[in-house]
Fold this sequence. Notes:
2 copies of one chain form a homodimer.
Chain A: H1 8-26, E1 31-32, H2 34-41, H3 45-53, E2 59-60, E3 64-66, H4 67-77, E4 84-89, H5 93-100, E5 109-116, E6 125-126, E7 129-130, E8 132-133, H6 137-144, E9 148-151, H7 155-167, E10 172-175, E11 188-191, H8 194-202
Parallel strand pairs in A: 4-5, 4-9, 5-8, 9-10, 10-11
Antiparallel strand pairs in A: 1-3, 2-3, 6-7
Helix pairs in contact in A: 1-4, 2-3, 6-7
Amino acid sequence: MTGKTIPDIIVSRLPLYLRSLQRMDEENRKVTSSQELGERLGISAAQIRKDLSQFGEFGKQGTGYNINFLIEQLCRILHVDQEWDVAVIGAGDIGNAVARYKGFKNRGFRVVMIFDDDPDKIGTQIGEFTVSDANDLTESIRNAQIQVAMIAVPGSNAQNVADRLVEGGIKAILNYAPINLNVPEDVNVQYIDPSIHLQRMTYYLE
Amino acid sequence: MTGKTIPDIIVSRLPLYLRSLQRMDEENRKVTSSQELGERLGISAAQIRKDLSQFGEFGKQGTGYNINFLIEQLCRILHVDQEWDVAVIGAGDIGNAVARYKGFKNRGFRVVMIFDDDPDKIGTQIGEFTVSDANDLTESIRNAQIQVAMIAVPGSNAQNVADRLVEGGIKAILNYAPINLNVPEDVNVQYIDPSIHLQRMTYYLE
């Protein structure tokens, strides 16, 4: 941590830059420009240059960005130059889908546990995981020193689960339940609610 | 449509207000305030008052907001005072989860079709739906006059699917594939990529 605080709006764009660069890398590309990145992302080239300049000097005027180098730097900045163990709470359809999701590979995350409180689900197999008893949530997470969790339980139960995750030491929660969570200030929450995203778009439809 | 263009950042907060209000309504609450809404959402009361004032006069100083009335108004503004038919493309884990998702109820959306290009999946049953052949995508969507779709196919196939959706008349796409889509200006796209959300949070972790 340096002394400088980077605005969260800038932080929020870095994963998008990283994803585009990783895609270019898969296409065996070596060099890109803020113009090209901008076109892919619908963000202005000037904005991208300004965002990246907050963290250092990653490209040269005229020669562009070395894709591999910039991927490395962004992974380091976002702390995904390591793999984070992730706990999934809720073994319903969404919990199932995220536990088996292949898209975390190479992006810094690895699901390692899945919990549910339904006796019919506890002990069953989801992909490579055995569903654990949600009663053991706090202790299991504390013992495994897990800091990242995804909540995929009904809204009515999500705050309770969040409280127990925080008690176990979780610092980052991706919440699929359609409610806002109250957590201490040092815990980050991000939300995925497809209805919210869809409503943002129907505003523009006739 | 009035002549006034509302900034998208304001539009993006309206679904959050609506969700909180609907939750209060489920709790049989009748009246709320910008202060209470703000505390639930982590948004300042002043911001909420300012956002809502863009659309009219919904509450009175001192007496707060009538929850039912504000829900009605926000549904009207966001065009979810009707139910939108939604097509899901991709019958893998994520497509399955969104097709069977109960959370669209009362939020303005109803999945009506699901498509896949895998011969082993076409014709199979997902909840109440029979998986349709993705070859018929454009025509089926045009015939049913569907404007909203969710893409849940691998990244490598998502742009192709998007092109065919746009050809069929889709105007709003919720994209679960981890790539940016190129679409005409009159088509809206929103993205759900859990890795992006998680990386926004690991930035803040040690």
